[in-house]
Fold:
Amino acid sequence: MAFFFAGSLIHPLVMLVMKIIKVLLLTVILFPLFSIQSFSETKPLRIGITAVLIEQNININHRIGKYIGDRLNVPVETVYRRGYGDIIQMLGRSEIDIAFICGYAYVEGKDKFDLELVVSPTLNGKPFYRSYVIVPSTSEDKDFFDLRGKRYAFTDPLSNSGYLVPLFWLAQKGESPDRFFKKIIYTRTHYNSIEAVAMRIVSGASVDSYIWEHAREIAPELVSKTIVVKESELFPFPPVVARKSLEKNIKAKVREVLMSMSKDPVGSLILAEIGLDGFIAVTDDFYNPIRIMGQRVKGLAMFSREGK
Amino acid sequence: MSPLFFYRWSLGAKFSLTLFTVVCIVAFMISLFVIKIGEGAMEDELKERGVAAVNILSRLSVEPVMREQLWDIYELTKIMSNMKTLERNLIVYAMVMDKTGVLLGHSDPGHNRIGSKFDRVPVSNKIDRFGSIEIVEAKDEYGKPLLDVSSPIILDGKRIGTVHVGITKRYVQEALARQRIAVFFIASILAFTCFLAGQLIAKRMTKPLMKLSENMNALREGLPIENNLLVLKEKDEIGMLADTFNLMAVSLKEKEGALIKSERLSSLGEFAAGLAHEIRNPLSAIVTAMNIVGSKNVEAEDLSTLKGVVRKEADRLNKLLSSFLVFARPESPRLSEVNINEILRETLELIVRDNRLRGNIKLEMDLAEDMKKMKLDPDQIRQVFWNILINSCQAMDGSGNLKVSSTSVDGKGVVSITDTGSGMEKEEAARIFEPFFTTKEKGSGLGLAVSKKIVEAHGGKIAVKSKPGIGTRFSLEFPAM
Structure:
């Protein structure tokens, strides 16, 4: 330090040279630190998942996430939440980048957080599925409306097949689930709903047709204890969505990777395991049927509340 | 089994059996004790598990029960009943009820209708209470015993429901069964080891005792034991007994030696006296006859009578002395292979011919046909038979039955000569083989003594049995070749 204090007595040119040397030295010393930071700045892709689809799906979604990460050559961070509500809020807060969610959750998320569609899966070549009403196979109830005054299971309040569809049916008849059913429970996943029916914890449940059919293959004993008594019309498949603020090129890359997944050997293997064909690009209006249904349910509910 | 049976057992058997019994009883009691403790500990462990489980379940159930979230309740009960400890599922069921007893969740709801009143598991009289937790002995649907542990679900000090957890006793019972087998196995090994140890100790103890007993027998029979004395290193009770016995044996031997010496001396005196007495009678007769011959007026007829007397008495002296010589310095037997029956016949022939001796005595002969030849001195044996037969005939005094029989036993020749003579008292019979012992006026008292000596020189035995007024039997036994 004494050396620098003594500097005032030294010629300004010498001081300048010394200053240059000092800066150079600092640069040499600090460069590796900067470079490390710049490495770690390759942010991981954060993928939000729920177990709404199927318990085992956590694992499969993990694998899809890892597949995307491997193909994009970025680290992937999978974030698990129990419900769609948490996931869309996290997307809105930019806490995650992309997510596997339900159509109804997308519609709601689009409204609130301007979420963007990435792709939609396809099954048998089409991006559609249905909502099933299932009852215990030994049940005497032959229709959804026979379940009045009984216990019923929904999956998630932001699920299309597991909540919105049956709600819509009830709303059309001027009923609200609270009045129609003796008791409503939320099981969070379609698989749980199947189990709840099989175990006769509830007298009926609304489930995703794709999950029910898939579960029939992986858990035939459990699924055989349930039967489908009502099928809805076709609805667009639960999409993969991204937060609005996610860089366009990343979004595009993810879309590209997922859409070409069926052409890739590793990708097609994963798809075969989940029983899907692949992914296609979809536009927002593709989800209009759900959007309209949601609006009508809200309106009818308001109407029936007013009518009370 | 009479107690006498036990008395007859060897010391070793008694000792090890007693030890075995005691160890068995003690081991059995210890086993019971250990098992009882184990049972208690395992039961307590189960109860602790059950209490821990209901504590967790009742706390986690508060919110779902309050909000009637049946799915969450079901998941809780399922998680509870799937909790495995060391690959074992101790919890067979878990269930949650609301405060009115309506079933809200059950780990296996298929058998139990959710939303209906639940009939409690069969309750026994025994209820353990730990605070608000109750533990009841019950049975599952297969009849296996279990503990039903229940606890209230408390919210703000109010009971909003109840949780039940069924803890199976199956694994504990299996563990206890294994423990029981192990404990009894160890106990039986212990008992068996003690039995063997008892045998070993008893053997060590009884072996010197057996040896002492043998030595005592040898001592009683007069066999030499000097080289066979038991000397034990251990100076315990048995060692002391052995030492004492040895001292006693030595002192007995010494005393016996002294006794034999004095007896020999006294018998020598008796013998000498007997001999002197036997010599004196003929000698005094000779002396008297010589005195008469020496007087002046002896007639020729008397002279020849006196000569006859002198000759006869000298002859008697001569005979006496030859017998004495045979007795005192017996000739060693000149052995040759002979049939004892032959010798008996020859000797009896002599008796038959001698009318004076025979008189009206009836003879009976019963000789063994399978008699084997034996190595004997025929002359000496003939002498023996002659002496005995004369004795018998004289005892019958001309009338009675004389029975002579011979048998062959294991190659040995057994001869018995029985008369119906006057017989003898026991004391007389005991002395009959002593030299110069006689009950007759004429006998020298050496005949039977010589006979005994000869028989014993052949390695045989001679014995007599007699009853006054009934008769006498001589038994002789000659060894096999």
Q: What stands out?
A: The mean pLDDT of chain B is 83. The CA atoms of residues 193 and 393 of chain B lie 73 Å apart. The radius of gyration of chain B is 52 Å. Chain B touches chain A at residues 68-71, 74-75, 105, 109-110, 113-115 (CB under 8 Å).
